[in-house]
Write a structure and sequence with these properties.
By secondary structure, the protein is an alpha/beta fold. It has eleven helices and ten strands. It has a single domain, classed as P-loop containing nucleotide triphosphate hydrolases (Rossmann fold), CATH 3.40.50.300.
Length: 295
């Protein structure tokens, strides 16, 4: 281990070192090292099939790595069960909503807050019985723009509101590290701005790892970015460095000097290109940021 790697690990709230995940003869994660510092706004990007979800499943304990080590707040959690990682401060949201459709946002948050405060055994009592629960729920409902819909069943909420509720639940768990898995996936254009602003306003003391295809969100949110391709870290840097990296442009634009060496693992056209062969908005952001920095 190099001196710089050791220093990064000491500063990190969450650290993965040399993670490998093999499914038979296929390495879905190949010697990945990632360090998330306190208060980080870190994005993990890459084409479909790059191994992003596998990596998140390793970090959260859904999968056990074939090789490597994961530490959270200096503690080795490589073998720790997912729910114990949550107790230690690591919380994730999912690409697909995981919500109780019949409950309202208020009820859902009240259950989460009660559990977090050690009041899970009294869940059957009336909501207003505990002032701490009421106050925290009111705070979260306001923060995530859910006050107006707090008494509506979750299954009738607009999809953007459901996404906001999921992040509110995660924050109700008082995380030290928050893993956001494609928070704007499937959210209609008219509901995206509210969600983007809310993500941008997450507490500064919570370290956030964002997994996202939407480059508008990635470049507006992240201070540090890791690019994953075919299960391997291609590069890491700040947004300007990533935007100007020819290897990243090759992945997202499908051309360049290294365009034949970097691409999706299934051999299909790069996912950031639409069916007409035009660069997606994400690819255009990478290209435009790079052009502005050179212009």
């Amino acid at each position: 281990m190099s001196l710089n790697t050791s220093e990064n690990m000491r500063e990190a709230v969450l650290s993965a070192e040399g993670l490998v995940m093999r499914f038979g003869g296929i390495a879905a994660t190949n010697n990945v090292t990632l360090n998330l510092k306190k208060g980080a706004r870190h994005a993990l990007i890459g084409p479909n099939g790059a191994g992003k979800t596998t990596l998140i499943n390793l970090l959260t304990g859904v999968l056990q790595p074939t090789e490597g080590r994961i530490t959270l707040l200096g503690e080795d959690i490589t073998q720790l069960a997912p729910h114990r990682r949550v107790k230690r401060g690591m919380v994730r949201t999912f690409q697909i909503n995981q919500l109780f459709d019949s409950l309202t946002p208020l009820q859902t948050l009240a259950l989460t807050v009660s559990q977090q405060l050690g009041l899970g055994a009294t869940w059957w009592q009336a909501l207003g019985n505990n002032a701490r629960v009421v106050d925290r729920c009111a705070e979260l409902l306001a923060q995530f723009h859910l006050t107006e819909v707090m008494n509506q069943p979750t299954n009738v909420l607009a999809y953007g509101k459901r996404r906001l509720l999921e992040i509110a639940i995660a924050l109700a768990c008082e995380p030290r590290v928050l893993l956001l898995d494609e928070p704007v996936a499937g959210v209609p254009a008219g509901e995206r701005e509210e969600l983007l602003k809310t993500v941008a306003a997450l507490p500064a003391d919570v370290s956030v790892l964002l997994i996202e295809h939407d480059m508008d969100l990635v470049f507006s949110f992240a201070k540090r970015m890791t690019v994953l391709v075919n299960g391997t870290v291609l590069t890491e840097g700040d947004p300007e460095q990533i935007a100007n990296d020819p290897r990243v442009k090759a992945v997202y634009l499908g051309h360049g000097e290294e365009g034949h060496d970097v691409g999706p693992s299934d051999g299909m056209p790069a996912p950031s290109l639409d069916e007409r062969g035009s660069a997606s908005p994400g690819a255009r952001v990478v290209a435009s940021v790079g052009a502005k920095n050179h212009g």
